[in-house]
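FAQ

Q: What does a record look like?
A: Structure on top, sequence underneath. For example:
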């Protein structure tokens, strides 16, 4: 698991560096990653009612922490 996380971090760092180089088109690779995320989470959806009622929607602390990380401006 650690190797996969390191590979993802390295891939993200490479994509950030390449965004500064206007001659590199990372859109196709990014779209593949977005589609992978959509496919991965397609079954992880409940009705809107579930998410709007705090007593039903109680994500684990790890999920809240992860959301905090990805909401930072540096991500």
């Amino acid at each position: 698991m650690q190797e996969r996380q390191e590979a993802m971090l390295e891939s993200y760092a490479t994509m950030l560096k390449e965004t500064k180089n206007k001659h590199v088109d990372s859109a196709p690779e990014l779209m593949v990653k977005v589609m992978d995320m959509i496919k991965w989470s397609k079954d992880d959806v409940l009705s809107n009612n579930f998410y709007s009622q705090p007593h039903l929607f109680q994500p684990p602390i790890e999920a809240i922490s992860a959301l905090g990380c990805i909401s930072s401006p540096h991500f």
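Q: Is there anything notable about this one?
A: Residues 2-70 form one domain.
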